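tool_call: predict_structure(chain=1)
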Amino acid sequence: MKTHPYLRAFLGGLFVPVLVMPVLLAVFIVARVGLRVPIPIEQALIFPMAVVPSLFGLWNMLWLGSHERTRLPIGLHGALLPLLLMPLGASTGLSFGVLQLTATEAVWFGAAHVPYAVIAPMFLAVLAGYYLVWKYVIGFLDRELGIA
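tool_result:
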């Protein structure tokens, strides 16, 4: 099966977010409806559910196309994706008024106040998580699909 390597790369990249997004949706529904969390969580899900799966697939296609020239390991390539997603999500949140940035914290939906001192280690954890997912899960899928 050596035809359509970019299609296989796109589908391999879709695998993880397509499995994770319904679980996150269920957690958010339980938090919003069952636990009565006052933050409109469903608005926070629109961006990730619409954009992240496609970006994973496109990011995997980019790795496939650039790997011959850059020799960048897939885990490191995947860890770079949050560096694109974070500013994209923040600018979208700022433009729709969902996110406000103050001198000391980020405020989501006017209710969730998160200090920058908490955001920084969380972002580092996300980078580590993306590295591991791309290295072990998506790298495995790429090898199984015959594109790595």
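agent: The chain has five helices and three strands. Proceeding to next step.
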